[in-house]
Amino acid sequence: MSDERTTETENVADETLAVGSRAGAVEVPEDVGVQPVDTSAMPAPQAPVDADGDRRPILELRDVSTHYGLVAVLRNVDIQIYAGEMVCLLGGNASGKTTTLKTILGYVKPSEGEVVLDGEVVNGMPTADVVRRGISMVPENRRLFANMTVSENLDLGAYQRRDKAKLAEDRERILETFPRIRERLKQKAGTLSGGEQQMVAMGRALMADPKVLLMDEPSMGLAPILVEQVFEIIQTIRSLGRTVFVVEQNANMALSIADRGYVIQTGQVVLADTAQNLLNNPLMREAYLGEL
């Protein structure tokens, strides 16, 4: 990669790993068929524990309120995510889902409460520091850099890492997990199908070796058959020990593979339960699953 391209990469990588770059969504060609993945290649991290041996949340929002000016966007939000879980945050448009992610990532500073990552309060830190401490993001609409190659997009995910030997191992594992990516390494990201772009976005996020993988609307803009495949990949990655926090409007699909879920409306968590209990909750079924 040239010096000029490297400088460009470093300038944009923080936003890419977080909520997504301002470069805009890449136009994608029509998806054609399901591509293979091999998630058996992914390693499983260890679950954190407190000094007394108790299991603690790897990511926690404690009574978080966030304002844009005088407008309260999040109000007293409490969320706990434990290592190895898949937890989903469900809600409609303008419910506070994106602001929750921005607050976790340091794009927005909470006016009250704390964001705690692996026992450390991280609210108020720059996004780059939050990412360095173990948060990685698969943005809505993938947000790849269309004129950069697949390989260069993957490199963005690891630009803060200095453990070169392990980085090479992780890159190989990701290419084993997404063999289609290996076939496209020299191809411009903007020429990939939507399903292939989603794999690259996941691979880029995993290149950071995160403690928590955030995903913003992973089903957005994909054909139904590819939506099913994407959630199968998420489920298998989580089953191998990765911690996944998914923001999603497709409640049926998200709850079908999640351990637990939260429902947010107008900035407040109104329901929190196991995924199965939420699927069976009459209020949930009426409001989000379309059974009016």
Structural overview:
The chain is an alpha/beta fold. It has a domain at 55-134 and 242-292: 3-Layer(aba) Sandwich (Rossmann fold), CATH 3.40.50.300. It has 11 helices and 10 strands. It has helices at residues 3-17, 97-105, 127-132, 150-157, 164-177, 179-183, 194-206, 224-239, 251-257, 275-280, 282-288, and strands at 59-68, 71-81, 86-90, 112-117, 120-121, 135-138, 212-216, 243-248, 260-265, 268-274. A 6-stranded mixed beta sheet has the order 6-7-8-3-9-10, with helices on both faces. The model is unreliable at 1-47 (pLDDT under 50).
Features:
10 strands, 292 residues, six-stranded mixed sheet, 36% helix, 21% strand, alpha/beta, disordered N terminus
Number of helices: 11
Provide the CATH architecture of the domain at 55-134 and 242-292: 3-Layer(aba) Sandwich
Globally, the shape reads globular
Residues in β-strands, percent: 15-25%
> Major sheet, described briefly?
6 strands, mixed
Poorly predicted tracts of residues: 1-47
Strand order of the largest sheet: 6-7-8-3-9-10
The SS-based structural class is alpha/beta
* Strand tally: 10
CATH topology of the domain at 55-134 and 242-292: Rossmann fold
SSE topology:
Elements: H1 3-17, E1 59-68, E2 71-81, E3 86-90, H2 97-105, E4 112-117, E5 120-121, H3 127-132, E6 135-138, H4 150-157, H5 164-177, H6 179-183, H7 194-206, E7 212-216, H8 224-239, E8 243-248, H9 251-257, E9 260-265, E10 268-274, H10 275-280, H11 282-288
Parallel strand pairs: 3-8, 3-9, 6-7, 7-8
Antiparallel strand pairs: 1-2, 1-4, 4-5, 9-10
